[in-house]
Amino acid sequence: MSELVVTDLAKTFGPTLALDHVSIHARDGELLTLLGPSGCGKSTTLWSIAGLHRPDSGRVAAGDTVLFDGGAGIDLPPEARGCGVVFQSYAVWPHMTVAENVGYPLKLRRQKRPARDARVAEVLDLVELGHLADRYPHQLSGGQQQRVALARALAHPPRLLLLDEPFSNLDAKLRERARTWLRDLQREVGITTVFVTHDQDEALSMSDRIVVMDHGVVRQVGSPEEIYETPADLFVADFIGTINLIEGRVVAEHGDRVEVAVAGHPHPITATRAGPAPLGPDVTVAIRPEAIALDPAPGDGPTNHLTATVVDRSYLGDHTRYRVRLGEATLTVQTSRPVTGTELVLGLPVARTFAYPGSPTRA
After folding, report:
1. Nearest CA-CA partner of 203 in 363, 18, 31, 85
2. How many other C-beta atoms can be found within 10 angstroms of the C-beta atom of residue 351?
3. Rg (Cα) of the chain, in Å, rounded?
């Protein structure tokens, strides 16, 4: 297997800067996810690794093999890069059986029939489709077609597996099953994998690490826990999951803690500085709905105790979600313990309440 190192990758389409010196590192055997909104550059990065886009500059290396180096004039064709690619559309050939689809890359490489048949059988068993080898794509479900595309990508053992939104055509329940199955398969095979998605649940549940991208720039790289619990900047905080954002002004600073005045509320909120960027006078306080405690008990560490008014509540089975007013801000609070009354005492733990420079509209 191979690690993947992408260095200072730049790509423009006419006047549009699609990749702005992107650098990423996928460790050997790792599942690295490129996550971001539409147009952020994640698919362009993947296609540049695969050789389907030619970057303007930068370098791409898989293990000891340089796939692209703008300065050295190296640009291996896609078929020489050793990448198995699965696209959003699957692109299985309708006139070929499952076995013929999977064996086609081996046939192109002129592998002899006995060895080809043995490898096809091996890979189809790996994706749990051995019993469907003689069927045609129109006789398969969407999830089964997706597995055929994956088996074809694995047929000639690749050094990298590249997945471009492979579950986007599946319904919600099938997507959940497919990502669990794929994660188990990836761990079993141990292949270095780059996975592109805009679905946060997929990224959080499947990845060893996540690269969050926006407008061709890498905003943060980290484990799912790091990305969710300690976002590097306001864009990541706002993009990943649900979060409360409260605009305010810094009135005091104490090391890594700041006191933030919030419009309409008599007491400042104590928050932890977040990310590397320096804070100005205008900041945004961010906290996850599930991090807010209702009627907090003393002794749980430094906590803001704030009184808020209930706007409405939604019962969602395993939890209840409240919308509450805190000064001029509206917050969402998520709890498994339903409460009554129109006023609540909220506990905002200082360690999970972060202050970012600027406002959400400028993130």
Report:
1. 31
2. 12
3. 25
| Interatomic CA distance for residues 252 and 238, integer angstroms | 25
Cβ(333)–Cβ(243) below 8 Å: no
pLDDT digits (tens, 9 = 90+) for 63-98: 999 999 999 999 999 999 999 999 888 788 999 999
Distances 8 to 49, 81, 211, 220 between C-alpha atoms, Å:
13, 19, 15, 15
What are φ and ψ of residue 283, in 5° steps?
-135, 170
Q: CA 315 to CA 32: how far, in whole Å?
A: 35
Q: Are 18 and 11 in contact (CB under 8 A)?
A: yes
Tokens of 117: 């048949």
Six token digits for residue 185: 């398969």
Each residue's pLDDT tens digit, 99-127: 999 999 899 888 899 999 999 999 999 88
Full-prediction pTM beyond 0.85? Answer: yes
Cα dihedral sign, 40-44-45-46:
positive
Residues in the chain: 363
Inter-residue contact 100 to 92 (CB < 8 Å): no
Separation between Cα atoms, residue 106 and residue 95, nearest integer Å: 17
Which residues fall within 8 angstroms of residue 300, CB to CB, at 6 or more apart?
Answer: 293, 347, 349
**Cα–Cα separations (whole angstroms), residue 290 to 221, 241, 286, 293:** 23, 11, 12, 8
CA distance 98 to 137: 7
User: End-to-end CA distance of the chain, in Å?
Assistant: 38
